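Incident log, structure service

09:12 report received: a user says their structure output differs between two submissions of the same chain.
09:20 pulled the input from the user's history:
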Amino acid sequence: MKITKNTVVGLTYELKVSKEEENIESVPFSVEIRDQDDPFYFLFGNSGLPEKFEIFLEGKQHGDNFNFIIPTEEAYGEADDELIMAMPKNQFDAQNGFEPGMLEEGNFLPLVDENGYPMQAKVVKDLGEEILLDFNHPLVGFDLHFAGEVFEVREATEEELSHGHVHGEHGHQH
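09:34 re-ran on a clean worker, output below:
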């Protein structure tokens, strides 16, 4: 069975990222590995990943290997300065489920946007009363290098099609 619209796809892969600065491409480093114990499942056409990701995979079948690069502008784009903002620290207190150590620079805070979707913000700087947070996607500004294998392809169920995402399969949602 080939990967097309309305199929559920399971992949094993390694995602590496690299950054191009002043025409020097950095050495790609690994940011995510999905192995056979924990494949990445998604409903084709609704992976939540850059569109290019699905274009590269279309028509492949179980056992096929893939290896492709999605350049920054077709992935998550460049960082947007408007998504870097200072917020009062008292929003991140124990009442809201935050521990003091979570606010250290470089950490990612698990937050929820106004629609209730999970998102991450990176702690850029501690400003005393306030904290400077970066709401850009963690992979902005990077080229994405995907290499892996098609682990499973099957038809989506009615329920999966109506909800737009995959149930079960270790319950992994991205």
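09:41 both user submissions now match this output. Likely a transient worker issue. Closing.
09:42 reviewer note: Residues 11 and 150 are 5 Å apart (CA to CA). Residues 51-57 form the longest helix (7 residues).
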